Automatic annotation (TrEMBL):
Presumably involved in the processing and regular turnover of intracellular proteins. Catalyzes the removal of unsubstituted N-terminal amino acids from various peptides. Residues 1-24 form the signal peptide. This is Probable cytosol aminopeptidase. Mn(2+) 2 binds at K305, D310, D328, E389. It catalyses: Release of an N-terminal amino acid, preferentially leucine, but not glutamic or aspartic acids; Release of an N-terminal amino acid, Xaa-|-Yaa-, in which Xaa is preferably Leu, but may be other amino acids including Pro although not Arg or Lys, and Yaa may be Pro. Amino acid amides and methyl esters are also readily hydrolyzed, but rates on arylamides are exceedingly low. Residues 385-392 form the Cytosol aminopeptidase domain. Gene3D superfamilies: Leucine Aminopeptidase, subunit E, domain 1, Zn peptidases. GO terms for cellular component: cytoplasm.
């Protein structure tokens, strides 16, 4: 899909806006009205550069409008005004942003002087807060907008360039939509035109440098979202593999294993899931060698579950809501988006991305409850429920990655269990790990990006729940602790490698709308894991 948003950075000190109607006079009569976006703190405090730009008359208008609309500058709230005659804009949009610590008078007791009680300062905004702010602005502007954003916040960011880049990231993520299969689209020029947004900052060169990385991350998130949003009749395993191979344009090495290769490797667990489908299964291995000579000899590895459609197989799912199972490959989509982001921003790290791609269908060749399959590791698995299929796919791919590449660590992502929704809803993804240090780094990256994780336990007592009478293990431990027993199953295939499992069933698809995401497919995990890499593993 062609980009619908054009973002530029301009020097705040030399900001100049065309007078209203100037673009039309230049012959661009369809151009949307120019909007000026500014930020106000909780006390309606404006930045010094903003005050200089808009002048006293506009400030007075804002205060009158705020009083009428009961706008108090609450973070992410908005005051939408017709710009005063003296301001070179048609529309003035005031957005609430984090402010500085303030103080308030305390009503004095009789006979005692008035005292001032400091308000407890809010925690400093994170980069995720600036991305969310960009999403808020993008939502208020709508598509086809022509706007100038005065990035002069009432509470100065610790790193203004990084904050501006994250703000631009939020604009890009909010702008995304998936409408390629709509044959009838709105005729409204504002909806179909490209938005042109100028972000005025103190140091545009520094902001552009930071934004280059955030644009790569945005592209990776959008790729992941689009993969999740695709229908399963279009995005079956072979097509998914073909799309992953397009990363070769960025310098990524891409290897595709077909069923013959997987049979030779002994991937009986993965192949068993796909044997009921007319679509052949695939494993895709992507490698970005960004560390260069002298880098760490051990790569880091990310593994994704890619069930392009999950009927449940013989243990078929209820019909209601089954259409959502086109998104059961959100883990694989994240891995592809992550590798794209790392390659596009030339990350100085050696990374493996591996995805197992299958379609789980009923049919005369489908595996049955009670079947026993042999995994690549040599361990045997009794199939109790054919709808507990994702762990079978991941088990073989995890073993393959640790055996072939000997990675420093592995992280897998999967829309694995409905149980994680019961436990955590859609606010957090479940985190399981055998390595406390890796777990802490993931939690920190989640907090920084707003893609939040919550750690859940692993323990031998849970492991006993998947022991089988007839094989080395069974593929489900029953109703209780479903997310945990799924993670215990996966742990049997990591062979002692430091490892983390992210259950993204509640966050990877059908996720709630947010400031930065209005899409059914969220692209969850790309920003999280890119941040993990950039903060901890780049040379």
């Amino acid at each position: 899909m062609p980009p619908s948003l054009k973002i530029q950075f301009a020097p705040l000190g030399k900001l100049a806006l065309a007078a209203p109607g100037a673009s039309a006079a230049a012959g661009d009569s369809a151009k949307a009205a120019q909007t000026l976006v500014i930020f106000a703190g909780p006390d309606l405090k404006l930045g010094a550069a903003t005050l200089k730009l808009i002048g006293a008359e506009a400030e007075a208008l804002i205060r009158r409008g705020a009083a009428t609309a009961k706008f108090r500058g609450k973070v992410s709230s908005a005051l939408d005004l017709i710009a005063p005659a003296g301001l070179a804009a048609d529309r003035l949009l005031v957005i609430g942003a984090p402010g500085e610590e303030t103080a308030e008078p305390k009503t004095p007791e009789a006979g005692k002087p008035e005292t001032v009680v400091p308000i407890k300062p809010a925690a400093p905004p994170t980069l995720a807060d600036y991305a969310n702010l960009g999403g808020v602005v993008g939502g208020k502007l709508g598509r086809g907008a022509a706007a100038t954003v005065v990035f002069d916040l009432p509470r100065a960011p610790e790193n203004a360039a990084a904050a501006a880049a994250e703000f631009a990231l939020g604009l890009q993520l909010r702008d995304y939509r998936f409408d390629r299969y709509k044959t009838k689209k709105k005729d409204d020029a504002d909806e179909n035109g490209a938005s042109e947004i100028v972000i005025a900052v103190a140091d545009p060169e520094a902001a552009r440098e930071k934004a280059a990385g955030s644009e790569a991350v945005a592209a990776g998130v959008i790729t992941a979202r689009s993969l999740v949003n695709e229908p399963a009749n279009i995005l079956f395993p072979e097509e998914f593999a073909a799309r992953a191979k397009e990363l070769e344009k960025l310098g990524v090495e891409v290897e595709i294993l077909d069923e013959t290769a997987m049979q030779a490797l002994g991937m009986g667990a993965l192949l068993g899931v796909g044997q009921g489908s007319s679509r052949q299964s695939r494993v895709v291995v992507m490698r970005w060698r960004g560390a260069g000579e002298g880098g760490d000899s051990k790569p880091i590895a990310f593994v994704g579950k890619g069930v392009t459609f999950d009927t449940g197989g013989i243990s078929i799912k209820p019909a209601a809501g089954m259409e959502d199972m086109k998104g059961d490959m959100a883990g694989a989509a994240c891995v592809v988006g992550l590798i794209e982001a790392l390659a596009a921003r030339k990350a100085k790290v050696d990374v493996i991305g591996a995805i197992g791609l299958v379609e789980n269908m009923p049919g005369p060749d489908a595996q049955r409850p009670g079947d026993i399959v042999k995994s690549m590791s040599g361990q045997t698995i009794e199939i109790i429920n054919t709808d507990a299929e994702g762990r079978l796919v991941l088990g073989d791919v995890l073993w393959y990655v640790q055996d072939r590449f000997k990675p420093k660590f592995m992280i897998d992502l999967a829309t694995l269990t409905g149980a994680v929704l019961v436990a955590l809803g859609q606010e957090h993804a479940g985190l399981f790990t055998n390595d406390d240090d890796l777990g802490e780094k993931l939690l920190a990256a989640g907090k920084a990006t707003g893609e939040k994780l919550w750690r859940l336990p692993l323990a031998p007592a849970y492991d006993k729940m998947i022991d089988s009478k007839f094989a080395d293990m069974k593929n489900t431990g029953g109703r209780h602790a479903g997310s945990i027993t799924a993670a215990q199953f996966l742990q049997r295939f990591v062979n002692g490698t430091p490892w983390a499992h992210l259950d993204i069933a509640g966050t990877g698809m059908s996720s709630p709308s947010s400031d930065v995401n209005q899409s059914w497919g969220s692209g969850f995990g790309v920003r999280l894991l890119d941040r993990l890499v950039s903060d901890n593993y780049e040379g």
